[in-house]
Amino acid sequence: MKRPIIILFLLLAFGLKAQSVSFLQFEDEELYEAPNTPKTNYSSRTAFIKNLEGLNNRALVKFMAKKGVTEKLIKQANEFYDKMWYAEAARVFDIVLEKSEAQHSINLLSRAGDSHYYSGNMERAYKWYHELYETFKSEISEDRFFKYTHVLKGTGRYRRAAKLTKLYRQKRDGTGLGEEGRVNAERDVPQLVEIKNVAINSKYSDFSPMFHNESEVVFASSLDSSFLTTRKYRWNNQPFLDLYVAKADEDGVDLSGAKKFSNKINTKYHEASVAFSPDQTIIYFTRNNYGKKLKRGKNGINHLKIYRSELVDGEWTKAVELPFNSENHSNGHPSVSPDGKKLYFVSDRPGGFGGTDVYVVDILENGGYSDPLNLGRTVNTSKKEMFPYITKDALYFSSDRTMGLGGLDIYKSDVVEGVFSVGINLGEPINSNRDDFSYIIDEGGEKGYFASNRKGGKGDDDIYSFKNILNLNAISGIIEDEADGTIIPDAEVFLFDKDEVRVAQTRTQPDGSFVFKNLRPVSRYTVKTVKKGYFDSTSEIRTKNNERVSFTQPMKRLEEIIAEDEGVLKLEVETIYFDFDKFNIKPRSAQELDKLVAVMTEYPKMVIKIESHTDAIGTRAYNKYLSDKRAKSTRDYLVANGIEAERIQSANGYGEEQLLNNCRDGTRCSRDKHRQNRRSEFIIVEM
Predict the structure, then answer these.
(1) Per-residue pLDDT tens digits for 463-483
(2) Which value, to the nearest 10 degrees, does the dihedral of the CA atoms of residues 287, 292, 293, 294 take?
(3) Taking every annotated instance into account, which residue ranges of this chain make up the domain OmpA-like (predicted)?
(4) Which domains does the chain have, with CATH numbers?
(5) pLDDT tens profile 645-669
(6) How far apart are CA 409 and CA 399, in angstroms?
């Protein structure tokens, strides 16, 4: 996010060092004061940096070669970084890394990547994170690796992100699937959605929309409307955040006429993320810990708090903070339940599951609040959950957990009698490869707003409206027996998207039919059917433009590959071929051996023996050796895939003793003729 919100809302756990500030912090020279840290002359030093950037390449390289210059610039960049002035730090780190002879150390590359990451320049962040990973692969921290994979997705490098994440999980826990993978592997089957960048967006950050009255939306913006003074926020050199209100059009798809919300609510520091009581007479919002002056916790950080104000005679009263706030951690992102009895919010308080978690309190009749309750692991993960929005039957929130499409993704958790289901990713087009967050939807579940810093916007973070439209995209089919065409009821059918992520599953009806609805238009899907007694069947299907696609999927019985040949029972699969002079299992052969695994699993008393053969090229002794290696390689594959070793009576090679054609020594044969003799056969000894 680019990015008052990253500080405000990424709950990043920033403390005195740059990587330990809480998600909710709006850090600035005034908001953060590390003990014994001398003041920095910001204007003179940034002017110096601008002068450097104005030099041509030759002059800059010459200047950087002067003694002590590089060291001074690194010191200056680190000072900017420690104060969280990331836009300035990024500029200096770039000059040092690109124009000097400074060693590209793990610390220098890490901070350069972080500076661009937090100020929203994904391509530049990729440049330094990629070099960091390639150079210090074994030393890179989990936090930096996590940011690197986010940057990969944020710049469209999905395949590499998926590959590295899988490798990392396998190294970490040996399973290839960690916590976030287990609970978030599915994505919500999407509606067709019309999305519009609304008119009130500026070149700054505009986000956190919230319905107000019947036709207004209140939102946060760093658009500075003051005439004489512009107070800057050093994280990204933008003005501080204030609350604005805009008018929604009749269709609820655009916003116009933005103006400051209330001088009673807005201050000279940050205000953002609001929620209203059902009768619109109480507002909850996020603000810096600010009374007559800024207040700091024991670590020198100015945390965020949730404040409350009432509408009396058309004016908002002086805001008061909620009693569960703290000087030493942050609370923010309030959302009030439709009945007005519960308040949901985000906090980095101790005892949570990750960087920031979603909590809830009861709003009591006497005006008090119950103790905060963590929503648990179905909603919260070891990463950051934020921007909750509660409806009568669902909780929407954003998270940067793995398995997402980009940075922050929007998730939906269904709620029944206070129990929350596992959050499901809303998928495209609501989510993108960038940050998508602060999602709200109307009571009818048809339209709403969210914020995103996706490409094509007007500014850093923009507000988008969305409207669900009727989605007729569907895949339907009939599952039938390949041999006689009879239908197969109660088969399990899975649907996977182009990224091999499972998006839905169902069972065939008594008539063998199934249907998957609300799919993406003109998209590639894979349908996989599983039924006991049959081989798994897989078909690749592409949807059309808002219409149903139908097909028939045949399934082959497992027993059909059991055949009798001159009184001998064999397992007939496509020939297990080997490359010349090789004994490794080829991918195509592995698919055939998987069929053997399926049959032997179905018939647990089956015992086989493996016979392997070669062509006549080479000496008889060598061919005997090679075929024996092939037989044992085949046996090892079956055992590795779950078949007990004692169920394979023998695995022997016969060399060129049993050729299938006349390609003997001294006979001229084509390459294909010789290849026919390189095979393995499977003879059933017991059933």
Answers:
(1) 999 998 778 889 999 999 988
(2) -30
(3) 565-687
(4) 46-169 (1.25.40.10), 193-468 (2.120.10.30), 474-555 (2.60.40.1120), 562-686 (3.30.1330.60)
(5) 899 999 888 887 778 888 887 778 8
(6) 6
